[in-house]
Amino acid sequence: MRTPLLSSGRKGRPPAEPQVFSASAADSLRGSALMMLSMAAFICNDALMKAVTQSLPLYESIAIRGAMVLLTMVLIARAQGGVRLRVPRGDVWPLALRTVADVISTVFYLLALRRMALADISAIMQALPLAVTLAAALFFHERLGWRRLLAVGIGFLGVLLILRPGTGAFDLWSAVALAAMLLIVLRDLVTRTFSVGVGSSAIAFYAALAVMLSGFVLGWTESWRIPTLAEFALLAMAAGFLTVGYITAVATMRVGEISVVAPFRYTSLVWAVVLGLAIFGEWPDLWTWAGSALVVGAGIYTILRERRLQGRG
Question: Rounded distance, CA 177 to CA 183, Å?
Fold first, then answer.
C-alpha cells in the first residue's frame, strides 16, 4: 500500500516536497479500514452468538437474530429508496441454490461454533479465499499458475495442521466446520453465475429471510423459551454487528484496490484470538498458530501474485 513519505533529497539538492495521498491510495486506505471493520464486526457477531447459544436454543437464537437483521435491512433499504426484489427467470434456480447453501452453511457454522474455540474455527475459515480460488479454476477454468496452485496447497496444509485428522483434535465439529466452509465456497461460486439483473441487496435480503425462516422451521426440534433480558441484548448486539459486517463487506469491494484491501480480511483471526481469550478463556495451541500462519501467508501471497499478474496485463 502506498503511503506518504518525506524525502530529504540527495546531497546538494533541496528537499523534495512532501508526497500526498493520491486518490487511489486514499481510497485503498479507506477500503482497508472498512475491511478491518467488517472482519471485526463478523467476529464480534460470532462471539456473541457463541455466548448466547450456550444457554438459549440455537435455532431460536438464529430466528430472533435473523428477524432483527431483516428488520434492520428493510429500514435501511427504505431509507435508500427501497430494494429491488424481482429476480430474472434465469436466475431463480441459481438464487435458490445459493440461498440453500447459505442457510446450511450458517447452521453448520453456528453448530460448530458452539463447541469449538473461536480462534480455531476462524482459522479454518481463513482458507475460504484459497478454496474459492481453486474451485474457480476447476469449474470456471480460471487460470491458476503453478505458484498460486502451490500457495493453495500450502494453505490447505495449514488447515490440516489446525484440524489434525486422525488425532483427538479432530472431531465431529471440526468436520462440520469444514463442511460449512465448503458450502460457503459453493455459495460464492453460484453468486458468480448471476446476471446483472440481480442486485446485491436482493441477494442479501433473500439470504437473511431464508436464514431467519430456517430458525423457525428447525426450531420445532427444540424447546423454546422467552429469552432473558441479557440474552435478548446479546442477540440485538449480534444482529447489529452482523448488519455492519454485511454493509462494510459490500463497501470494501467498492473502495480502493482489491489487491490492497483483501489481505486485511485476515485481521479477523486477530479479533478471534483476542475475543476468544477475553470472553471464553480460549488460547490457540501451537498447531493452530502454525496452521494459521501457513493459511494466512498463502492467502496473502495469492492476492499479491494476482495483483502482479494483473499489472502485467
Answer: 10
